[in-house]
């Protein structure tokens, strides 16, 4: 019997909700989101379920971090990494959610359930050896260093894969393609959803 099989019905429902959020958008839900989904009015009620899932080795939580609920390495490895959708490497576009999984976890162990997968659409990153159809392995984090290849989300909820260059003096962010035929995208505000740590390509 697995740890998942030992969960109560409600614990299983909460775990499935957390897992599905991570799969569909690349990061876990907040305590408030879990409470709203299950009509639990008290944060303490949600915390009881989270502590039970943590004790049974299915999730980890980091204090003082927004959306810091993550699947454990064992849970992530058992289910594969979440294929969270398709990411534009050309023009900005709204991300499309999926519920598939791809198991690259044996190649990227030790990241505490922070990893997810996106399939690239477009050729704006080809000079960084990231081509249309490739899968990028992304580590969930909300900060990046200048020049990192990131999954960036604009205030309009448009997602793109680009190099990250904040320009504080101009009060904007430059999202730089790795394709000399394309121009950078400039936005006033954007957030980092994760940093690319690997690329997987199927040889045609």
Compact description:
It contains four helices and twelve strands; from the N terminus they run H-H-H-E-E-H-E-E-E-E-E-E-E-E-E-E.
Please give a structural write-up.
With 204 residues, this protein is of the alpha+beta class. It has two domains: 4-77, Winged helix-like DNA-binding domain superfamily/Winged helix DNA-binding domain (Arc Repressor Mutant, subunit A), CATH 1.10.10; 81-200, Umud Fragment, subunit A (Ribbon), CATH 2.10.109.10. It is 22% helix and 35% strand. It is built from four helices and twelve strands. The strands form two sheets. Strands 3, 4, 5, 6, 7, 8, 9, 10, 11 and 12 form a ten-stranded mixed β-sheet that branches. A hairpin with a 4-residue loop joins strand 9 and strand 10. It is globular and about 55 Å long.
Topology (elements, then pairings):
Elements: H1 9-25, H2 31-37, H3 43-55, E1 59-61, E2 69-71, H4 73-79, E3 81-88, E4 93-94, E5 96-102, E6 115-121, E7 135-140, E8 149-154, E9 158-167, E10 172-176, E11 185-187, E12 190-200
Parallel strand pairs: 3-6
Antiparallel strand pairs: 1-2, 3-5, 4-9, 6-7, 7-12, 8-9, 8-12, 9-10, 10-11
Helix pairs in contact: 1-3, 2-3
Q: Output the CATH homologous superfamily of the largest domain.
A: Umud Fragment, subunit A
> Ranges with pLDDT <50 over ≥5 residues?
none
Major sheet attributes: 10 strands, mixed
Order of helices and strands: HHHEEHEEEEEEEEEE
């Amino acid at each position: 019997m697995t740890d998942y099989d030992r969960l109560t019905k409600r614990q299983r429902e909460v775990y499935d909700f957390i897992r599905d959020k991570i799969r569909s958008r690349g990061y876990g839900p907040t305590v408030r989101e879990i409470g709203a989904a299950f009509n639990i009015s008290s944060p303490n009620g949600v915390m009881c379920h989270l502590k039970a899932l943590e004790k049974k080795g299915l999730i980890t939580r980091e204090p003082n971090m927004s959306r810091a609920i993550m699947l454990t390495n064992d849970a992530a490895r058992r289910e594969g990494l979440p294929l969270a959708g398709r990411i534009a490497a050309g023009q900005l576009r709204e991300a499309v959610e999926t519920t598939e999984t791809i198991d690259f976890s044996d190649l990227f162990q030790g990241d505490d359930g922070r990893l997810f997968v996106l399939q690239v659409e477009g050729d704006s990153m080809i000079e960084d050896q990231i081509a249309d159809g490739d899968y990028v392995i992304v580590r969930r984090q909300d900060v990046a260093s200048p020049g990192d290849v990131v999954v960036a989300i604009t205030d309009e909820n448009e997602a793109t894969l680009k190099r990250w260059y904040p320009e504080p003096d101009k009060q904007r962010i430059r999202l730089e393609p790795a394709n000399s035929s394309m121009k950078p995208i400039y936005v006033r505000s954007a957030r980092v959803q994760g940093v690319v740590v690997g690329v997987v390509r199927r040889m045609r």
